[in-house]
Write a structure and sequence with these properties.
The structure is a homopentamer of 307-residue chains.
Chain A lengths: L2 H8 L6 H11 L10 E5 L2 H5 L1 H5 L8 H11 L3 E4 L1 H5 L11 E4 L1 E2 L12 E2 L3 H6 L4 E6 L6 H17 L3 E6 L14 H13 L4 E5 L8 H9 L7 H11 L6 E5 L6 H13 L4 E3 L2 H4 L3 H16 L4
Parallel strand pairs in A: 1-2, 1-10, 2-3, 3-6, 6-7, 7-8, 8-9, 9-10
Antiparallel strand pairs in A: 4-5
Chain lengths: 307, 307, 307, 307, 307
């Protein structure tokens, strides 16, 4: 065990050895094993956006086995997906890549101002599929957030008792926020704090912008001169907001765009002390050789082998 | 065991042998045994549309025994119905035809924009009645869809633990969709994907039309030039959307109409790689001799013995 | 055991011997024992309409013992009532008359467009009170019907496992229907079908009128020329709609009115193949001697000893 | 309800109406209905003594249906048997004769000085088979008696909560007693008392002889000049010992012997205030016509229509 | 469904349709499908006698797949084995042969005078492995028999509620019996009776010899002149002792010996009305071609195609 992993695990000393064992597995798998950094492949877009929007540009992705193999070949730390995708390959790829069962999901046939996902898997499913952890999405800012907090609480309690890692996707959204506010620095930091307070072991947020959404917060940011002008500073602030670095925070990549910008974001995450990235569409919506090359670059930045 | 059945069962390797055994039973019963194709008789219209609309045109169908016998005589792979219809004949016809207990139902006295069915049977009922599986309907597009996903999740987890097959009727409907959108190709493909992600073993959808409902999807279909101009191409796309053919997808026949058109649809399903048909009203709303002849033609197309 | 009772019991072969035993008790008690016909006394009006509206016209009825004795003296097949009424006399009259515990009830202090009853007794109550079965009311047509279906489902599964009979009062009502529609022939037939599909052993509906509520149904009734012009024809259609006579369907008498009309209704039920009547207000809202005479006439019609 | 039945039921006022209902059913079935006397057919000898010893003399008895029909045709109050015998006919004879499920049994392949039976059925079995009660054998005098008391306690508590009657076969036997002591008057009276104290509703003992087993008891019988010289006096004493007649005590007939003696015993039971007989081997080990004649005589004595 | 199967299923009318379905599957599989006769392959000798004693003579049998394939190729009605053997092949052979999970087992490292097996599988295991039933061994004659009866009772109640078949191996053994007594005609008949009384659907006993073990029984056999001099007569008596033919009784073949004698035994079982054989060592302790030929002869005798 590297010093870095030892240090990170020390943040979770209160958890039972089962959960620590699964955290260890996450941190010691793939290209970034032992570095304390993580790159995770998530594929829940089939459920969230529909199959053609998700997979038509690289039709191999219609096949659930594709993503297991991609995560393995790219040297990701883990692969995260909803029940059906994991069921369809968990036996064939058993043991080859740490799995995270995404426990709630949301489709895009009904669009509502205040979103909520529904539970589509259980802790029992995660155990029978051999997962290291479970994932759950919350939408702070939605008027339905209380139901999400309560469902997550129950799931997290059960997951921890069974030695699993709890991963929370914390995505501000809903009538409580402006569109720009969804990635406002105060709001993303707040979302990270909430996920940590809810007992998440691993927190996924979006890379924040410089906007400050809440006037009460704005006063403080200005009074205290919190540095948020660069992406790296903002990452540092978000990591600080997740228990001063005592919780693993990783950042999502968003829709496919310019690769150069993406790598700059990764450099900022790394520089700001972020723990890594969770990269879905940028991974599986291009051909496999391109995806492997792309992910190799990302991991190179995190491992310090590429500037 | 034929190669074809062996291949299909291999898609479900993660499931316990009990569920695989019941899948085998479905795939190895009746005229199409061993071909990898299925024709299932579903009779839930008495609950869904009322008795006269369902059975008056062929009054034998008021009697629950009629449908057991029809499914047996026609060589169907299975018979699916709500609790009462199965209770009324399960002892008399024990073992003669694989049974699927339809676990939720919906009547048409109250019409709502956003439909939801209610649970009318349980996994325990399915076991005491000797069923190979349970069926559940979801209405993606309904504002009440989250409750359906969560109820299905619980039922599916319990059913799988007891070795049963989970069949999902995925019927887009509700305020999130236009009327035409209910059978739009993007929506039907999406509905198949969702059912698969929810852990369905066998998915029933409607035969899609060429319409594309969602603008975000439309862009992709056009950009990627996904072929959807013929029925067979659309079937192929739906099957691809259900884990690239790794989940059994069958198509429902809809209301009684022109037989020639129906057989053309069956040919398209077959050509497009669909796994078969679930044919209710077209089976039991005509005289039994006609129904047997009709189903024989359908099965002939699927088995390749009739062009 | 008479041939008739033997035949009726054969419809319930899937049930355990306990439930069959209690069905036997219902069919073999009182004046109509062995005929396959039933007259049941239900007294839930105290809860449904309040005490004065229910009992002031014949104040003996305020006393729960009155109704036990009336059912016994009149030779009814069973007495059905809510928890309190049964608790208040079940010990004193133990064994003298088959009892049905009405498991849900509804008061008339709050009037809602879409009614739902609440559970006021349990299967455990029915067992400790020595009942042969439990009763449950559903209101198809109410927007709250889904909750009723689900509650009935749970109760029915538990009741059957413990050897009890499940009686369903299926009363169309609510915003999905016009006032006339509540007794429309298509709707009453539909209500009988739904109760049967939900697993009811004994179904209680209102005597239908000639009105057809649903336009989709109207087309079928006219196209198929379903005879519904006489009360007997309508009864026949309802019985057919309850699994072609494989489920016991009895008809409720409604409010007190002209006795001659009532007896004509009974003659129609008998002629149409109905299994009997459930007669509340017409029984207990007149003096006991008159009630006995009235019920004697009804039973005479059903037994064929009175035309 | 006769005065006699009313009086007997009044002894059980503490029980819930369900148990009272089933006691009523026992007391109001068959030839002796309403007399307060009972003749019950028990057939557990196949288990206790083996099939040939039980049924070879009248081979019809190998068939479980035979005993149901015998109990019905003879006008017995009830039929008692182990699980298998009841399962094999409970559906076919549903409702035609009150059933008592014998919940523990003992075979005679191993002979032990201190016998104990094992549980071979449950309260749940009794409910699903439509029984009015459960039966349980205890062997006071056996060194294993504490286990029997405790198992009976649990069963009785559950049975009563579900409205069933608890019948206890109280047969002194074991190292604590001499052979003669098994039917000693002090011991049989003691066995009746114990069964009553354990909460039995109906107690079955052997007809006692004049022997007094326990010296401490002997002193009292002599000091108090308790009359025990005739069989009728002994019956009276046993009935007194079962809560002064407040618990139903019936007497077993033992092995087939001289019919005249048997009828004299019945007369003594009747004269002494016993509640009836439980007659197995004397019923089913002779041809059916003879059995019917024999049981008719017994019932004639109890009903007072035969001296 | 053949008349014969229909008749046999009618003996189990009290069971739920699930159990009837699994009985149907047993009776309708393999070479003897529909004849009402069964040949079952049991392989629990690895546990009972150790691997070398069981499999060294035909080393293919060390491999669990061997036995699945043997049962399939030979056209057996079912394959019965302990947990491990079924787990090791249930997925690969899913659906191809009805499975019976042997729920208790006994090794031969400790030899006790009064044997008892221990539970090594559960009803839940049977469901997840896709079995049609569960098997359980009792040793009447052992001083530990009471514990076996009670464990079987619990298992059987749970199995039946879940729609499974209950198979009982009833093997007299223990300090209550002489060695010869283990196959004495009175004892084997008694063992069949006990299994039936315990609620077994299918009973397995050894082919009895002419010896009579119990003196009390001997008197009856002689007095009633029960014919037991030929093997066929003894089979007939055992079948009669299992509810007069209302329970399926099959006979075990015992250790490998002279094939001619074995076939004569099969002829006697057939002639005496036995329902078939359960043949372990004689099947798998010879080469597969020989085993297939051997079993073909056995099935030929049962089907009447070979004298």
């Amino acid at each position: 065990m590297t010093k870095k992993v030892q240090e990170i695990l020390s943040y979770y000393r209160n958890e039972n050895p089962g959960t620590q064992t699964n955290l260890y597995r996450l941190l010691n798998h793939g290209t970034l094993a032992g570095t304390g950094k993580l790159v995770i492949l998530p594929v829940d877009q089939g459920f969230e956006h529909g199959p053609a929007r998700s997979f038509a540009s690289n039709p191999g992705g219609y096949d659930p086995h594709y993503h297991f193999q991609l995560a393995i070949d790219a040297g990701c730390n883990a692969y995260a997906a909803p029940l059906g995708f994991l069921e369809a390959g968990a036996a064939e790829f058993a043991g080859q890549i740490p799995l995270i069962l995404k426990l709630n999901n949301h489709d895009s046939m009904v669009s509502e101002k205040d979103p909520i996902s529904s539970q589509t898997g259980s802790v029992g499913d995660a155990l029978r599929l051999g997962c290291v952890g479970v994932g759950y999405t919350i939408y702070p800012g939605s008027s339905q957030i209380l139901d999400m907090y309560e469902q997550l609480r129950e799931i997290a309690e059960e997951a921890k008792a069974h030695g699993l890692v709890v991963v929370v996707w914390s995505y501000p959204r809903g009538s409580g926020l402006s569109k720009e506010g969804e990635t406002a620095i105060d709001i993303v930091a707040y979302a990270a704090q909430i996920a940590a307070q809810l007992g998440a072991h691993l927190i996924k947020v979006k890379l924040p912008c410089q906007h400050i959404e809440q006037s009460a917060a704005k006063k403080v940011y200005e009074a205290e001169k919190i540095p948020i002008s660069t992406a790296a500073e903002r990452v540092k602030h978000v990591v600080q907001s997740a228990f001063n670095g005592r919780r693993i925070v990783i950042f999502s990549g968003g829709a496919k765009g310019d690769d150069g910008n993406f790598f700059n974001d990764v450099r900022a995450i790394n520089e700001g002390g972020g723990f890594g990235s969770i990269i879905g569409r940028n991974s599986f919506q291009r051909s496999k050789p391109e995806a492997l090359k792309f992910l190799k670059t990302v991991m190179g930045i995190y491992s310090g082998q590429q500037s």
